[in-house]
Amino acid sequence: MLIDMHVHCNELKDLDHYSGSHLFACVAEDVETSKATIELSRRFHFIKPCVGIHPWNIARSSVEEARSLMEIAVSNNIECLGEVGLDSRFVPETLPRQREVFKIFLDYAREYDLVLNLHTAGTHREVFQMLKTWRVEKAYFHWYTGPEDLIKELIDSGYFIGVNPSWKIQEKHYRIISKTPLSNLLTESDAPYQYKSLSLNPELISDSLDLLARLHNLDREIVEEKIEENFRRLFTR
After folding, report:
1. Which residues does a divalent metal cation 1 bind (predicted)?
2. What DSSP assignment string belongs to 146-211?
C-alpha cells in the first residue's frame, strides 16, 4: 500500500481511483470539512480521517467551535487531528488565537492518545516544545522545512517527518529528507496543491518512494513496506 499521510480528500475528485492501492490520512481545514472528511471515511475504507482547524482559518473560527469539534471527534472515534498547528509565517496576526485553539487540540490529543497531523510554518520549535509540555506522543510534522538541528530532537521523541514531493524543487526539504532516518519518515502529497511549478498529487508519492530507495540503498518494495509499517505504528493504540 502507498501511504499518503497528508492529503485533502474533500478536494479530490476521483477517490475510487486510489482504492486498493493507497492508505490516506485525510486532513480537514475547519468544522465543515472535518465533518465531510468523516463522511468520506465511511464511504472509503482506505481513508483515515483527521479533523481540525487549519491555522489559516483561525480568524473565522472560535475556541468554542474547536471544543465542539473535539466532541465530534471523540464521539466518532477519530484517531487523528489535522491539519492543526501554528503559523507565524503566513498568518502572524492570528497567532494568539491560534495558540488558544491549538492548546485545545493538545489537551484532547493527550487525553485520547490521538495523532497530530501538524502545520508548523515558522513555529517548528514552539510547536515541538508544546508537544513536549503536553506530553503528546504521536505527532507528524507535515512538509517539514524547519531548523535542521531540531531533526534529532524530533527523532528522539519518536515523531515523524513528511516526505513531500516538493523535494523535487525545494532544496531544503530534500536536505531534511536526506538527514532523517527511514524509521521516522512518512510519504505525503498535500494534494491538491500547486507549489510553484509542481502540481502536488498522490501519484507523486511513487517518485518519493524511489528517492528513498536511492538514499537508503534499498529495494523500492522494502521502502514501501517500511513506510507502511511506520504508518501503522503511528496509529497503534
Report:
1. 6, 8, 83, 190
2. S-GGGHHHHHHTT-EEEE-GGGGT-HHHHHHHHHS-GGGEEE----SEEETTEEE-GGGHHHHHHH
Give the chain's radius of gyration (CA, Å).
16
Helix (H, G, I), strand (E, B) or coil at 117: strand
Q: Under DSSP, is residue 53 helix (H, G, I), strand (E, B) or coil? A: coil
Q: Which homologous superfamily is 2-234 in?
A: Metal-dependent hydrolases (3.20.20.140)
Instruction: Please indicate if the annotation marks 6 as binding a ligand.
Output: yes
Domain ranges of the chain: 2-234
pLDDT tens digits, 120-155:
999 999 999 999 999 999 999 999 999 999 999 999
Q: β-strand 193-195 against 198-200: which pairing, if any?
A: antiparallel
- Asked if residue 54 belongs to a known ligand binding site, the reply is no
What pLDDT is stored for residue 79 in this prediction? 98
- Beta bridge mates, 2: 22
Q: What is the pTM of this model?
A: 0.97
23: helix, coil or strand? strand
The three three-digit cell numbers of residue 148, written as one number: 535542521
